[in-house]
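Cross-posting from the chemistry board since nobody answered there.

I work mostly on the small-molecule side, so proteins are not my area. We synthesized magnesium ion and want a rough idea of how it might sit in this target. Sequence and SMILES are below. Is it possible to get a predicted 3D structure of the two together?
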Amino acid sequence: MANVKFDDITFRYGSHTVLEHFSLEVESGKIVCLVGPSGCGKTTLVRALLGLIKPETGSITVGDRVLFDAKKRVNVPAEKRNIGIVFQDYAVWPHMTVLENVSYPLKKQRRPKEEIRQRAMRALEQVHMTEYANLLPNQLSGGQQQRVAIARALVVDSDVLVMDEPITNLDAKLREEMLLEIRMIQKRLNATILYITHDQQSALQLCDKMAIMEQDGVLCQYGTDEEIILHPANRFTFEFIGISNFIPVEKDGKGMALNCGEKIPYEGSVPEEARSGGYELGVRPNDIVFDDASPLKAKVDSRVFLGSEYNYFLSVGKKQIRVQQSMLDARTKGVANEGETVGIRFLNTRFYPAKKGAETA
Ligand SMILES: Nc1ncnc2c1ncn2[C@@H]1O[C@H](COP(=O)(O)OP(=O)(O)O)[C@@H](O)[C@H]1O
Ligand SMILES: [Mg+2]
């Protein structure tokens, strides 16, 4: 399969700019998750790749084939683009057998009968489903149905597979199974996959790399999941991927304080730009530890055991924050009890300008 390159794509619906100077490269043989909130322009980007809409600027290349180039007036028609697609809520057709489902894109291309059969069987072989060829979808498990949808996307000899929210409406357990399924097939075929989702959890489980898209079609970060979690480029990424607490910080005499409805002295380090006000401290729940020696005190409002961690709500002044404690930490240091006052320490803090209109306590 081939790499996919979007370069400087701008697209508008009337006066509404959906994508603006959007660039992204998906390397060959990798699975890249494009993650962003609903309405940020993900499906629009997919439609541009498929050739269903025409951007105003930029180019789209797959391998060494230029599919679209606004300047050079190249615009390869949709049916010649060789892009396999698995759409949202658009799994397999229930009234067709597995083989008929997979044959369908080739039938539409009016290929000869025998060729259709051979290519459909080969696509089924790629997803290890040949022995199910004559069954109907309701005779298959959810995971097997997903494999059929993938075979149908592969059958046109795709250079790249695009999956646009393929599992959004499934229950959690089935989603898990599907993600494993997709990952296995991707590895076996060394496929290039652009996987679109608004769900950061499935993106984390699946991807080699993640592209984070902000509202208004701006790419705000592209990197491995570790880079994105450990070094978020901005507040949007920090807030969108993972759970976060925010507490306003302000000057307090010579030092700094947390504004938690009341001023609470804060002795941790605060960067220069955040010292003059208007900033918030951001900290992840799993970057907060209990430490009786710490001057920063909190009251334990609730504790819930979640199987592999403890989840707490603590009050710091009048502000409630969330803390996650690993089992290891709970075993070695003990848990905190509801009603108790404990010392806490922030291990990993970030400082961002406060959002306009955000509450301050
Ligand atoms: N056919 C259309 N006509 C006008 N606006 C559209 C059309 N399709 C999508 N939009 C708008 O473009 C924006 C991006 O939509 P979309 O790409 O579907 O977002 P996503 O897939 O990230 O949820 C949204 O604001 C949406 O309302
Ligand atoms: Mg969409």
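Reply from a structural biologist on the board:
Welcome over. Reading the output above for you: The first strand starts at residue 4 and ends at 13. The two ends are 52 Å apart (CA to CA). Happy to explain the token format if needed.
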